[in-house]
């Protein structure tokens, strides 16, 4: 495949290494210094686009990919309040959009474990549920997209929590997420069920970006020639 990388920082460079190792080539790399090169003409040279940027630019990047007819795979978080709008625009343009809050295979297995544990704990309201996520200081959004996905899984499957917050919870129905930013942590997420007598805790700790980069390239391979809205559940058949 011919790949356009929209976002050529640490993550973009790691994706490039994985893509080349799997026989693909990068025909366009966009970073802060050459944003003017993100055009329909240049995107037409690519089979897929992989987008890892910042929330402020993500939606504009998606739009130009849809207009170009290029499937876009995105790991940018912090824009999900516009998710329905983006998906509607993708379908309107007969495009392809693959979004994941985290492309790691291990994290997506962790998502399923989190939902399973939430279902198991539903009959035991004496256990309060809290969450902690830790990332490097360059991560702009808080909580992380991964933490939000975990929180949504708990809310859907457990029933004791109705919403999540990073502020002091107003009542027991709010799931509190503690967000910590310290270097060089690439990502740690823990979910804790605590009672007066014990606690149960599950944790996923990302050691480096390689797993994320591989997942993004696998998603690009999955989306090649496809139309529609997809996620890691489609890719991994979870």
On the 0 to 100 scale, the average pLDDT is 95
Outline the biggest β-sheet: 6 strands, parallel
Overall structural domain count: 2
| H/E topology pattern | EHEHEHEHEHEHEEEEHEH
Cα-atom radius of gyration: 19 Å
Unreliable stretches, pLDDT < 50, 5 or more residues?
A: none
CATH top level assignment of the largest domain: Alpha Beta
Number of strands: 11
Q: In the CATH classification, which architecture of the largest domain applies? A: 3-Layer(aba) Sandwich
Q: Would you give an account of this structure?
A:
It is a single chain. The protein has helices at about 10-20, 40-45, 55-70, 85-90, 105-120, 145-160, 210-225, 230-235; strands spanning about 1-5, 25-30, 50, 70-75, 95-100, 130-135, 165, 175-180, 190-195, 200-205, 230. It is of the alpha/beta class and about 240 residues long. The strands form two sheets. A six-stranded parallel β-sheet has the order 2-1-3-4-5-11, with helices on both faces. Strands 7-8-6-9-10 form a five-stranded mixed β-sheet, with helices on one face. β3 (about 50), α3 (about 55-70) and β4 form a beta-alpha-beta unit. The longest helix has 17 residues, at about 105-120.
Write a brief caption for the model.
This protein is of the alpha/beta class. 38% of the residues lie in helices and 24% in strands. It folds into two domains: 129 residues, NAD(P)-binding Rossmann-like Domain (Rossmann fold, 3-Layer(aba) Sandwich); 101 residues, 2-Layer Sandwich (Dihydrodipicolinate Reductase, domain 2), CATH 3.30.360.
